[in-house]
Design goal:
Number of strands: 2
Radius of gyration: 20 Å
Helix content: 40-55%
Distance between the termini: 43 Å
Shape: flat
Structural class: alpha+beta
Strand content: 5-15%
Largest sheet: 2 strands, parallel
Length: 71
């Protein structure tokens, strides 16, 4: 069995691993969010046809909150 094709394919990708915590920590975080009614702030919503404008808006970094594209 040869890994020639697979190795060439995978050489174009960089894999980065990071630790995000345990399942218990994740569940505790979700419980905290629910108990305190924490929610995301949406700054602006773009239609799908305006996706290029949405990315430009996001790239300017002048927003506070989420920049969304409706599908």
């Amino acid at each position: 069995y040869s890994l020639g094709i697979e190795r060439q394919f995978l050489s174009n990708y960089a894999f980065k691993l990071f630790y995000v915590g345990s399942r218990a920590v994740f569940e505790a975080m979700n419980d905290f969010i629910a108990r305190h009614s924490i929610h995301s702030i949406v700054n602006r919503v773009f239609d799908f046809e305006e996706a290029h404008e949405a990315y430009d808006y996001f790239a300017r970094s002048g927003h506070f909150g989420k920049v969304c594209i409706t599908v």
